[in-house]
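ERR on first pass: missing label on line 2. Operator R.T. fixed the label and resubmitted. Corrected input:
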Amino acid sequence: MNSNFHIGLLCLNINISFTQIKLFYIITFLTIFHANSQTPGGYELWLGYPEIEESTVRSEYVKITNSIFFNNKTPILQTAKNELVRGLDAMLGRASDVQDSPNLLNTMWVAKKADLNQELQSVLKGDFERIGKEGFIIKSVLVNGKSILLVTANEEVGILYGVFKLLQLMKMQKELAGLNIIEAPKLELRMLNHWDNLDRTVERGYAGFSLWNWQKLPNYIDQRYTDYARANASIGINATVLTNVNANALVLSSAYLEKAAALADVFRPYGIKVYLTARFSAPMEIGKLNTADPLDKDVIEWWKNKVKEVYKFIPDFGGFLVKANSEGQPGPQNYGRTHVDGANMLATALQPFGGIIIWRAFVYSETDATDRAKQAFIEFVPYDGNFLDNVLVQVKNGPIDFQPREPFHPMFGAMPNTPLVMEFQITQEYLGFSSHLVFLPKLYEEVLDAETYSKGKNATVAKVIDASLFNNKISGMAGVANIGTDLNWTGHPFAQANWYGYGRLAWDPYLSSETIADEWLRLTYTNDLKFVVAVKEMMTISREAVVNYMTPLGLHHLMDTGHHYGPGPWVSDLSRPEWNPTYYHKADKDGIGFDRTASGSNATSQYAPEIAKVFNDPETCPEKYLLWFHHLPWDYKLNNGGILWDEIALNYQKGVDQVEEMISIWKQVKTYISDDPYNEVRMLLEIQLKEAKWWRNACLLYFQTFSGRELPPGVELPDESLEYYKSLKFPYAPGN
Amino acid sequence: MNSNFHIGLLCLNINISFTQIKLFYIITFLTIFHANSQTPGGYELWLGYPEIEESTVRSEYVKITNSIFFNNKTPILQTAKNELVRGLDAMLGRASDVQDSPNLLNTMWVAKKADLNQELQSVLKGDFERIGKEGFIIKSVLVNGKSILLVTANEEVGILYGVFKLLQLMKMQKELAGLNIIEAPKLELRMLNHWDNLDRTVERGYAGFSLWNWQKLPNYIDQRYTDYARANASIGINATVLTNVNANALVLSSAYLEKAAALADVFRPYGIKVYLTARFSAPMEIGKLNTADPLDKDVIEWWKNKVKEVYKFIPDFGGFLVKANSEGQPGPQNYGRTHVDGANMLATALQPFGGIIIWRAFVYSETDATDRAKQAFIEFVPYDGNFLDNVLVQVKNGPIDFQPREPFHPMFGAMPNTPLVMEFQITQEYLGFSSHLVFLPKLYEEVLDAETYSKGKNATVAKVIDASLFNNKISGMAGVANIGTDLNWTGHPFAQANWYGYGRLAWDPYLSSETIADEWLRLTYTNDLKFVVAVKEMMTISREAVVNYMTPLGLHHLMDTGHHYGPGPWVSDLSRPEWNPTYYHKADKDGIGFDRTASGSNATSQYAPEIAKVFNDPETCPEKYLLWFHHLPWDYKLNNGGILWDEIALNYQKGVDQVEEMISIWKQVKTYISDDPYNEVRMLLEIQLKEAKWWRNACLLYFQTFSGRELPPGVELPDESLEYYKSLKFPYAPGN
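pass 2 clean. output:
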């Protein structure tokens, strides 16, 4: 009797009589893979591929992937093939059989449209037309009368995305037979913004330090660069801005461009383009000019040459992200010019190379007494239509600054002739750093689903930014990254879900946060429904929890100054009024909240009349935005009949209770995961609970000095004095 | 019956039987374990335990460890047991059988002396007397007529060290039968000094940032803390100073003590004590006193109370490391007091709790024109015998500052009544950061083996610091850590060997660097002799290489200013003269070198007459120290007949050639390791080569402006101008 066991690079061919051995083998493999996949914790993100144990699923997958034709002629296709083989080999515990050219034994084909036969091309014609440059098709098709699983796309990057999608489906143990997926990203630019400095500190970074080891670049390529690119490609992110928007001109010097080019070389086979931040005064700082006036000939020439140089280093360079005339950054206004002058000058330099300018709308002036929430709109909306075609304007989700909850930014819907990029913050600057579990897709979803009434009903923010509402030529989303050198990349294991979820929403802004949580939990932990359902609930609660224990009922920006760690509602001594929490809550003996109606700053007037009307009246204004738009007396009656002071207090208490609930859920699922990852989250939840109480106590004690009222029943009494909370200092809080 | 097993690249022919299944299992296990143990690269350090493939070795080990009695009553014993089981299970691919109480089936016993029967205790009486508190015995003994492998010790920490030793022996596939190891550390304090700041930057750190996540401490315990402790315990390190010698008083505040205590809790079960740096002015900065005068009553009282508080948080706190009146740090001299006043005041506060003071001798004054190399000796030697019993003085290995090569510090041997702690630098401040492969145990060995002639011949530096020469009551070694948040801990994979080697020398300062390299290579990579022999050669070359391409023939401190990255022999404009490279090389048209003989600074007089005599005469002075002690004309004839200028140039060239040789060796061993770790080192070696050439070119072009001579044949001509090299600026070089 003869048997051949081929393991490693060869196919596995086992005679039935050796089932015993096979089982033994499989179990052994599994045991070890599991043990190792958690060392060190979380490094593999959602890309671990534990072997599939369920025998029916497994045998279906084994059959369907039995013999694969994969035409891998280019670097991106090579990447896709490597990913496919890596995933299949691990999940099925065998070496995949992959061939360069098709044959009759193939059960699966992975190839670009151009590499398919005419018959398939014409059968799929309609599908190919729908998926554009980056989409893909995963479909059961008949070839020579035999059913084949086909992964195809117009371009190679579509193949890469299709492969990742297929692996995700398998990891989630979805049925592959009869599959018919035709999918394309709804946004063109799906970007990460790294606020990484050249000294490797990360502004508002809470997961260690910058991944970019500038000292050892370009010659040393850290394995993490590749793993970072893999993770991004797996969720469709196709652009990364390497450097902080508070920019350093030095990154545009040739020494650093060479380093950035080395990163671009790593990212390219994953379909990711590199972008840099451009410091507006760079012509002076590294160019030795004595002006950075965007209308100055030498300045224009300098940027043209600089851009030419950039493209010599990085032929597919994406473009510049610019923060100008904002929080001390230089810009065209320093020379009496406008944002349009500045953006268009740079855009002109980039235009011949296909590069773009992303100009940030996050501006507010220290000399302008206008409500900060209104200033970006006032500055930018008049310029609608004046920017060149390769300029996008990047707008934060809300009109202040990444608070736990803000109404959507009124610029969305107000600039039909300008492509607006949505800027979300993935790093938790105002949301408990990387110690608090907050599932941000809940926040993103709320913003994306918001009605702008820009062209009547159903004109959601999502439709503004995916260009479907105004037919802009380009569309995009930016996420301020939460990624750093921590072993698990994001500091908190659940902060990985925010990176993942951001990527998914940049691909499809209509996805529900629940779907995202479901996917992420299955890909990261387990398909066990009991775990998934419970933890999804924990994630769902988490966003309301943080709003409640930090800034309920529309309160905002109560964080301690500078580092934004912990509560500081009492801070009132900063040089710029709008940096003080007191500017935002305006608590006094008569009440609390920022009047943004016509009787106040009239910020509501920046919204469409349908929205403004709702916001203007405290009776119709959603209670979640109540104190964002209204200054109301402490005894103001809310919809549930309670008075404002009591409801504020009860909401703070509710936030704490919700964290307790999260802990209780996590304890319930202990048996589904191993000790280390369980304990890691457990420890962090305990920090979150401690800090939720700190927030509740400090804010209530402080507001109580104005309201003069007792805490309502059900609210725990603070165990420290207001003076104690005020005395806390954190000179080395990270990210500052 | 025949079967073919094709596994990876192997082809085995075996008969079907249970053996077959077993082997199949074993080999499969191995394949997978290997694949995973390299993800992500280098995290496991020398503590990976690949399964043992060699069947004879394996079966011996299986037999000897078949049934283990392990009495694990305390946390340290629990740690030891966990380590043993972890290692054995992985190396032997099975679950170990470990029992709490002995029985007749046991093949191995692990227990403290007190837990052994009277017979064994008396048989081993002599051994137990030799091993002290931290030593161990690993021995084949007869119990009831049966041979048993015994791991024993007087104290539990000895068991931990014994277990690690046993695992290392097994990993190196040493025979266990008839083993008779009686081993104890030769130094009491085996310390790491972390120059870690509270903002997580690391002074002179080139492996990322500080491991200590102060923000999340004390409630979040990073897995790395445990893995750090494991690694240290495995090489006998028993003390760690968490914070930078350029100290921040805040670490002594209760908020930070609570955090430090959490780390101490993690380290305790690994036999490691926590130490902190004490900023001398802390009574003013956090105590609100208006003086830090060590003779002031309030100051004395403040420190007493502070120490009491520290011990409340950390009951086994080790003590303080102090840098005082050095490079701007405050100290007793600010109040007209002496180092003795300062150290003894703190020592008095620590004494009731068993704590110690380690007072650094790294001092040199900006107002003192004396040769910097002489100042520490002048300041400290007169105080010999004046320090309290719980004070140690920590002295850098050479009289300047961690140069690629220095003669040993003349304080070693000159203070018989003071325990001197050797301070080595493991982080490569002056040795190419973490991009250059330099095997530092070669450097350490050279210093430890140096003859002081303090009590005649054979009075080596090792004998001074292990207290054997002068019978000091306490002994120690400190290593400035090269550890950071990089995935592989040390930035360069081979820098792990420096951490490892430092630990081994702190345990036994008489170990040869070759033994250490051998051990480390086997534990980290493979036992394959072809690999080990070749790479050992590469490591051995590396230290001479860096001396040659940076500072040959006794030259020193030519590094560019501040960051110490790359050459800067021309720097001469710093405020303190002894911070300028020109201070050290004194090149002029007549020659080069620092005259430290009687005609110059007379630093040689600080050495014993036997040594001074040798150093004083350029004819007898070892050429490796020539320009350290002598200013010599460019045409001075060296022993080989060449003139000084030519020999300087040829040495620089030799350094470059040696790096080429290292690369060539590494290429030869490519087949012995997998691609990723191979390429990682390969990329770094290419950086090293590039930078070695930069050093050679820049230094030779600069010195040529004085010598006015041509480069001798065999020296490559620089490809850039001196102006080019001078123009290079590195504002974000790490560790500064």
